[in-house]
User: Fold this.
Amino acid sequence: MKTNENTASMKRHMGMKAASRISNTIIHIILVIISVIWLIPFVCIVIQSFRVYPTTMSRYLLNHPDIAFRWGFDNYVNLWKSDFPRWYLNTFIIALVVAVVQTIIVLCMSYTLSRFRFKLRKPMMQFMLILGMFPGMLSMIILYQVLKDIGLAGANAIPGLILVYVASSGMGYYVSKGFFDTIPKSLDEAARVDGATRSQVLFKIILPLAKPIVIYTVLTAFMGPWGDFVFAKYVSGVTPSAYNVAVGLQSWLATDTMTNNYYTMFCAGGVVVAIPVVILFMCLQRYYVEGVTGGAVKG
Assistant:
């Protein structure tokens, strides 16, 4: 009787194992299919960026018997002879300044709300949470008018964009505050007993322990202006010297410019813009994930 029970238990275990293996296989197949679909546009852009002739938009990805395609690095060479380096530099300056200033503001705000208890603390947090629910598009017209009145639109769009990007940085405290809440307050108290100031506690004790959330904040602050198009287009107007890469590359897709063989240069520009972002995420992916998961707690 006992032998029959053991045999039945083994069969159930083997059946569960087989079912688990089949379900895992199906899940992996679905994930591979989704990944292929997701990567197809990027692969097409990379292939098109190496196409030399014809340089207008083509319905054929690799080759066609009636069209003589040539492959080379001409688009990448011509890219740096155009206005692209200026657009790239504008975008890098904006993203770098915003990443530094916004990270400092967010971390200071998050540390303050996590460690200090003062009047109107919760109402202020709730007010910022509700205010953040409104889309930024609602304020775009008035922001442009304000920037125009103080001379930070058009040719001077770069400092204007930086000002707008960092103006509401403190409202992005949610994830960072959640991460700071997971760090024991006893560390702060011990450091204060030893004579450390609040700033010393933050910069010498808390931030070294909060490396994942610092990297997460820097990456998110850098990526915002790096890929922004709508507001950057609105503020820069028709001044090419003030364009960022998104606005500049989009201008090449206009009807009057795409017929002038700018399409493949647009693809090459898209590849060049994506390279630094991909490298950053590949190198800092572990810290990025730790920052997201570590800060996703109720504070």
